[in-house]
């Protein structure tokens, strides 16, 4: 069994895999890591290895904790990915984005793929059918838009994502919801339209914390999977074993 770990900006997500089957998923705060890691290994004593990616700043502490229980593979820029990186500044490309791109290549071979990761920020990552990673975009995430409107104005309240009943807000709150949610959806649909125009047979993968909230609101045909990054880590581990 394999433990896949994603250290994000706000939380840690982990999942236990048996080959390609996700057996159990865990989400916890970084300050809970020691206790939660111990519990995972107590519950799943057949875990023999760990694969980890991180955008956080406590990676070393968490890796050290995991190594008490099993060998750990940390994904970094030197890892062998199943795509050719055409990014102009490859050293600045986030490892989480590289993992998502690799997962798209491994799960959707010989296709044009656009991965949308809707978390703290939303990232767009494009890999063409020839497995060339070309780049994408980074934009404020859904809650960040609400936070910004509150923090950078004098009187706008702090709200949290809520489905607007119409695009015409008839109060301050409904106007904020319309602007944040509808604006977010229109942005995503606009990007998908641009990519679809230039690249035929585009496969769009939506993941991240806001994936389920957004999936129902997007008109385009997409593959929504909130566990895609963890599944991509598992697929990368299998890819590594096959190619070592």
Automatic annotation (TrEMBL):
Q: Which residues form the active site?
A: 96 (proton acceptor)
What is one GO cellular-component annotation here? cytoplasm
Q: Where in the cell is it found?
A: Cytoplasm
Q: Which Pfam families does the protein's record reference?
A: Pan_kinase (PF03309)
Sites where the protein binds substrate: 87, 94-97, 172
Task: Look up keyword Transmembrane and say if it applies.
Answer: no
Alphabetically sorted, this entry's keywords are: ATP-binding, Coenzyme A biosynthesis, Cytoplasm, Kinase, Metal-binding, Nucleotide-binding, Potassium, Transferase
Q: In which pathway does it act?
A: Cofactor biosynthesis; coenzyme A biosynthesis; CoA from (R)-pantothenate: step 1/5
A biological process (GO) of this protein is: coenzyme A biosynthetic process
Its required cofactor(s), as named, are: K(+); NH4(+)
Q: Subunit composition? A: Homodimer.
What is stated as this protein's family in its record? Belongs to the type III pantothenate kinase family.
The entry's protein name is Type III pantothenate kinase
Q: Gene encoding this polypeptide?
A: coaX
């Amino acid at each position: 069994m394999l433990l896949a770990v994603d250290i994000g900006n706000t939380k840690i997500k982990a999942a236990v895999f048996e080959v390609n089957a996700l057996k159990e998923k865990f989400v916890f705060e970084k300050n809970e890591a020691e206790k939660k890691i111990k519990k995972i290994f107590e519950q799943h004593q057949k875990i023999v290895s760990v694969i980890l990616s991180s955008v956080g700043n406590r990676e070393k502490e968490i890796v050290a904790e995991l190594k008490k229980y099993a060998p750990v593979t940390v994904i970094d820029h030197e890892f062998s990915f199943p795509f050719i990186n055409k990014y102009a500044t490859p050293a600045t490309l986030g490892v989480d984005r590289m993992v998502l791109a690799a997962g798209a290549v491994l799960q959707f071979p010989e296709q044009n793929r656009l991965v949308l990761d809707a978390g703290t920020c939303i990232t767009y990552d494009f890999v063409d059918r020839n497995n060339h990673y070309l780049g994408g975009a980074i934009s404020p995430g859904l809650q960040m838009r609400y936070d910004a409107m509150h923090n950078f104005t004098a009187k706008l309240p702090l709200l949290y994502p809520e489905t607007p009943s119409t695009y015409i807000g008839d109060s301050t709150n409904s106007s904020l919801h319309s602007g944040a949610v509808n604006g977010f959806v229109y942005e995503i649909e606009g990007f998908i339209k641009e990519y679809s125009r230039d690249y035929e047979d585009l496969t769009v993968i939506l993941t991240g914390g806001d994936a389920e909230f957004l999936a129902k609101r997007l008109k385009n045909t997409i593959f929504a999977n909130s566990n895609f990054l963890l599944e991509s880590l598992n697929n990368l581990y299998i890819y590594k074993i096959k190619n070592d």
